[in-house]
Amino acid sequence: MMTKRLAHRFVAGLFLAAAVVLAGCPQSPDAYRIKPYTENPAYWQYDKYPVLLLGGSVEDNLFQIPDLEAHLDLLQEAGGNYVRCTMSARDEGNVWPFARDPGTGLYDLTRFNDEYWQRFERFLDLTAQRDIIVQFEIWATFDFYDDREMRRSFWQRNPFNPKNNNTYTVAESGLPDTVASHPVQTENPFFFSVPEAENNQVVLPYQQAFVDKLLSYSLSYDHVLYCMDNETSVTPAWGAYWATYIREKAAAAGVTVETTEMWDPWDLADEMHANTFDHPETYTFVDISQNNHQKGQAHWDNAQRQRERVAATGTVRPLNNVKIYGAETSRYGLERDALERFWRNIFGGMASSRFHRPASGIGLSETAQAHLRSARMLLGEIDVFRAEPHNDLLSEREDNEAYCMAQPGVAYAVFFTDGGEVVLDVSALERSPRLRWLDAAASQWQDAGTMTPEGTTLRLKPPGDGYWVAVVE
After folding, report:
1. Does residue 39 contact residue 50 with C-beta atoms inside 8 Å?
2. Structural domains of the chain, with CATH
């Protein structure tokens, strides 16, 4: 399959690819796709090069926003290369994926709404042109619930609701016309339609048709990751069914895709997360976004335990963070929590780190842009794909004071959450190192020059309070 990504490559690249094919060495259809990095599968590889995925955006279902191109340009200018895309249609100005009967106003689940899919294809084109990786969530969980306690009525507008379509009734489908509860209660049988659960052969074909339509566009692009749900609590059979379905459809099209599931529990040790961590044959990467509800040292420790757990399975996979919570308007921590989470993810060996939309996160605010730029500046100095988390090299450290990643003997980076002072073990270095300070909030370097270690250690104290990164080379 010739991908849309290749179609956007510059002309010289096309001639080179043609020359390779004519020489009898055709490129694999997966050669340029997003996939685990061959040299370190804890990270991603795209266009044959390793990439760290960083981002933030104003909304999660970006394909539905009016100023999409300008927003993607802003993200790219700030150093971002990663967005979340829920296939949601519940917000003002959104359109739903199915066509409506002009006479009755009811949706027809056998016909699609061209505008929805045109928006979707344009989004895929624009992100491909900018090398921005897209992580989809196929089923936007909250679109299928009303949740009166939170004053939401999304299921009331959803085309899959039998009262809103002319395709099936409540009696025929077994779906209710009201689901007045939070998704954690799992009271909508929509998410139990798969054969391994209730095997609802009235509803399942229309769910499959929706996924087939999505794949008819997305499989032609090589910058796409597939997550089954947003914060789900339903039977594990649901996500496993769709992950397998998507992987089989991709294989039939001659390509390989990467899949995961996002569970609701904030504790990564919860047994629901085991369905992703312990099943690499179904889920080729792990989304741990719900860990970004944790704060301080616990946020780091929880992620590191799961990183070690994945490594112990013998199948190292990327750990993604497509949502980082925290903002002054958020119920899930303040802006400071979001920024600390962002940097801890990077220093902790995570494959991605993206600020959640306002008001639960800081989106692509000026503050988010500054820290994205600073992260890219750091990555220009440290080979993160060869470095490892190394808090063991720090002493005189308090909880959540500082975090280290290092390629011992080559380079070290230490992130300070708010000033402080620690001692770094540099015994692996063969000569006196150079120290530079990165002011993460201002995206500026300060050169401290060549340092003389105190024996085998180097004492590090940032120039001021706030977010600082020491780079020792």
Report:
1. yes
2. 28-379 (3.20.20.80), 388-472 (2.60.40)
